[in-house]
Amino acid sequence: MKLIxxxxxxxxxxxxxxxxxxxxxxxxxQLKNYxxxxxxxxxxxxxxxxxxxxxxxxxxxxxxxDDKYHDEKGHEPFGIVTMNQEVLKTTVNLKAPVYINxxxxxxxxxxxxxxxxxxxxxxxxx
Length: 126
Prior knowledge:
The protein is mainly β and about 130 residues long. Helix content is about 0%, strand content about 40%. The protein has strands at about 1-5, 10, 20, 35-40, 45-50, 55-60, 75-80, 90-100, 105-110, 120. The radius of gyration is 14 Å and the shape is globular.
C-alpha cells in the first residue's frame, strides 16, 4: 500500500506496519490507524495518520527525559512534541503520553493523574 504524506512524501507500507489506536488520539478520536516512523539519525519519531495523511505528530521517547517514567500494559511511553521555530521553545507533553506497543501494533493515549509531569516540558535548555 502507498501513503502520500506532507512530511515524508510517498511511503510504502503493509498492514503489519500499522499501529492501531482504538480510541484515537485526544482531539483526533476519529483517526485510528497510524504509521510509526523513525528516521535514522533523527531525535524524533513520527506518528502519521493513514486516514488523514496530512496529520503527523512528532514524538520523543519519554525515557530520554525521565528514565523512571513507567510502561503501561507493555506499551512504551512517547510524548507529543510541539515544535517551534525558536528551538528553545520546543515542548513535549509529559502529562498525556502516547503509549505504543510495537509488537502488538497497538497504541493509546492517557492523561496521567499526577502533577509531577507538565503539559509543556521544555525539551531544550541553553
